[in-house]
Amino acid sequence: MKASKMLISTLKEAPQEAKIDSHILLLRAGMIKAQVAGVYQFLPLGLRVLHKIENIIREEMDNSGAIEILCSALQPKELWEESGRWSKYGPELMRLSDRHDREFCLGPTHEEVFTTLVRDLVKSSKNLPLNIYQIQTKYRDERRPRFGLMRGREFLMKDAYSFDKDEAGLEESYQNMYDTYSKIFSRMGIHYQVVLADTGNIGGNGSHQFMALSDIGESEIVYCDACGYAADVEKATAKLIPSTPEEPKPLHKVHTPNQRTIEEITQFLNIDPKKTAKTLIYHDYVNEKLVAVVVRGDREVNEIKLVNALNSNENYLELAKDEEILSLHSVHGFVGPKDLACEIYVDEEVTQLSNFVIGANEVDYHYENVNYGRDFTGTVCDLRKNVAGDLCPVCGKPMAQERGIEVGQIFKLQTKYSLPMKCVYVNEEGKNVPMVMGCYGIGVSRTLQSIVEQYHDEYGIQWPLNIAPYHCVIVPVNYNDEEQQKVALHAYDALSKEAEVILDDRNAKPGFKFKDWELIGIPYMIICGKRSNEGIVELKNRSTLEKTELPVEEAIQFILNQVHSI
Ligand code: ATP
Ligand code: MG
Q1: pLDDT tens sequence across 2-16
Q2: Is the CB–ligand 1 distance for residue 200 below 6 Å?
Q3: Is a pLDDT exceeding 70 seen at residue 201?
Q4: Are residues 363 and 410 in the same domain?
Q5: Which of 181, 249, 450, 473 suits 48 as a labelling partner, its CA being 20 to 30 A distant?
């Protein structure tokens, strides 16, 4: 490809809304262009990368025995009513209606579509197990679309759904996808960790996420180096540290003028935050009630654990407003679980504390020497967010924490969809049995950006060779110089048959051209300069920035060897 014929649209500066390196670089390198918040166009270079990522996924999915199809994005409301998700999915579902007022959504995921497809097409157990997948555009009206392709409102996903006769079959299909995902992300050069995950809106039980490790990742991972336990913080649990009980002291109301936060109250009373409990009031819109949640003062509430305990939905759970707190005869900043007129959920850790401090539901007052069981009770469960230092639930050693970008997730759905949607097969006794399902997603466009996040430097992107839009670029320092042009054209012809190569035939300053290709991240650059008349060129490696002078034939051979080894 000749650079003069390409739509190269590099930018000196990224638009202001781009906050993280990978987003800035994809925009600056002219790989993508924003349409509206969370919606992007793929420009030629970006599209080539996207296709390479798709093809790795496609190859490995095909190798695993899965079959590719392509479904529509537009899905009728009736399908979602069959599964019960039309009302449950929440504001993320992009809903629309046609000219006859028939309601639809733009699919955020395709469980309903695949389940009914298999229900209609497969009757006999002879066709099972079956794993079908697609690479297709998804729509989610995300609360906070941000970071470019990381959290889009329109994005490309590979989604697969497995159908088995029984649980044992699902276990095999699930393991097959676990192994396939590991191959896919390894082939892309992604540094990743597999973690236990919550099942969220998709449902079912049993799930893993594949996390590309990165400081800008939105997901937090808690892991144990000793035994290998690793979980998304939403899902992570920890061993409860039993405390040595103290003799309960008499309850005492203490005047705490203007001391609202845990920080203020611990300073005011000169106590450790671990000797306090904080109470948050939530409005659960699914079950239409206010609930109180009590965790140790230094802890955060894990809202996913709370959603699961309440059998609610994360899109329908919010912290209560001040007037709602007043309706419980309490007041913001001084809320406590004693004599509170609502359901109370207590993190198990709080039951281990003795003689601690809580709000007194009265302006400027707290209680001291509070003890669970004597002064208040509630539903006890695990509701806290785990952090580094908490003890591994498997081996009891202290855990560590890091951040990751969720690039894939796999779920055991079991019969969550096949049962209500009647996706059944006839067994040997002639009975209808629901198929046992799994579902498996990869964020294709998010994966693309995650690679940039892991492979870049101050000059631009450093694409791994098998992902790069082109393998090599040939840059004559001065294209009008006859010798330079001759060597460049020779290298271009020799490489074009077996490698993806660009000839920079633009009439521009060399520094400008070099900067462009470094930003775009082409793995190898052949520079045809002063020594072109001797057949000597420079070979530059984008990832190490090393430059070597060598005969053009050697440069050609080197690049061909690299490309053949992909
Ligand atoms: P998240 O927790 O990040 O919102 P999710 O768990 O809701 O993601 P899944 O339903 O598991 O997402 O979708 C499968 C994959 O699709 C995810 O692992 C992720 O890589 C990708 N994905 C999900 N939402 C988005 C989005 N808004 N933009 C880009 N990719 C996404
Ligand atoms: Mg997920």
Answers
A1: 999 999 999 999 888
A2: yes
A3: no
A4: no
A5: 181
Quote the DSSP letter at residue 391. B
> Which residue has the least CA distance to atom 26 on ligand 1?
151
- Closest ligand 1 atom number to CA of residue 142: 27
Cα of 406 from ligand 1 centre, angstroms: 7
First to last CA, the chain: 21
Q: Say if 111 falls within a structural domain.
A: yes
Q: Which residue is closest in CA terms to ligand 1's atom 25?
A: 151
151 lines ligand 1 (CB under 6 A): yes
Q: Is 540's C-beta closer than 6 angstroms to any atom of ligand 1?
A: no
For ligand 1, the distance from its centroid to the CA atom of residue 443, given in whole angstroms, is 6
- Rounded to the nearest whole angstrom, what is the distance from the C-alpha of residue 64 to the centroid of ligand 1? 22
Total domains present in the chain: 3
Q: Is the pLDDT of residue 257 over 90?
A: yes
Token pair of 383 as six digits: 């509701």
Give the ligand with the smallest distance to the CA of 108: 1
Please work out whether the CB of residue 235 comes within 6 Å of at least one atom of ligand 1: no
Q: Do 355 and 419 reside in the same domain of the chain?
A: no
297 and 343 fall within a common domain: yes
State the chain's maximal CA–CA distance in angstroms: 96
* pLDDT given for residue 76 in this prediction: 97
What mean pLDDT do residues 164-170 have?
Answer: 97
Is the per-residue pLDDT at 517 higher than 90? yes
Give which of 454, 566, 427 is closest to 500, Cα–Cα: 566
- How far is ligand 1, taken at its centre, from the CA of residue 439, in Å? 13
Buried b (16+ CB within 10 A) or exposed e, 447-477: bbbbbbbbbbeeebbbbbbbbbbbbbbbbbb
pTM for this model (two decimals) = 0.90
Q: Is the CB of 443 under 6 A from ligand 1?
A: yes
Residue 550, domain CATH: 3.40.50.800
- Ion ligand 2 residue ranges (Cβ < 5 Å): 409
Q: Specify whether 71 is located in the same domain as 212.
A: yes
Domain that holds residue 53: 46-216+403-452
pLDDT digits (tens, 9 = 90+) for 356-384: 999 999 999 999 999 999 999 999 999 99
pLDDT in tens, 100-120: 999 999 999 999 999 999 999
**CA 179 from chain center: how many Å?**
19
